[in-house]
Amino acid sequence: MQHWLLKSEPDCFSIDALRKAKKQTTCWDGVRNYQARNYLRAMQVGDRAFFYHSSCAPPAVVGVVEIVREAYPDASAWNPDDDHFDPKACPENPVWSMVDVKLVEVFPRAVPLDELRGVKALAGLELLKRGSRLSVHPVTAAEFRTIERLGAG
User: Fold this and answer.
1) How many whole angstroms separate alpha carbon 102 and alpha carbon 146?
2) Whether domain 3-152 has CATH 3.10.590.10
């Protein structure tokens, strides 16, 4: 099993929206960075990922999701009315991918970015690297366990 971190702005799509979704499952679409897309393509059914609220106060890890469908074409890129439209993408050349995720747990306590920065065991976490803006990235098993413990309170 691999581990990941998925960022979402809560005013766009929050963990509460996922909790209210049918079967607490949704597609993770709208990723428009090639490296992040490649990480989506590397995900396998059963992998776990942190749900991270970004661009909010405070940004924080708020829960865990499971990958329930591996990468497939992200059709939002083909829709000119969608915020994630990409004129280079089409069904014949999809360019972008998405996965489906299912809610596993909402943490009893959100783990804010500032707290993550203070944990020595997380020094190598991609999220904490200067200039890192990836919305999808891998997390080691040890980092995953550490953040899960923090979220459990």
Assistant:
1) 21
2) yes
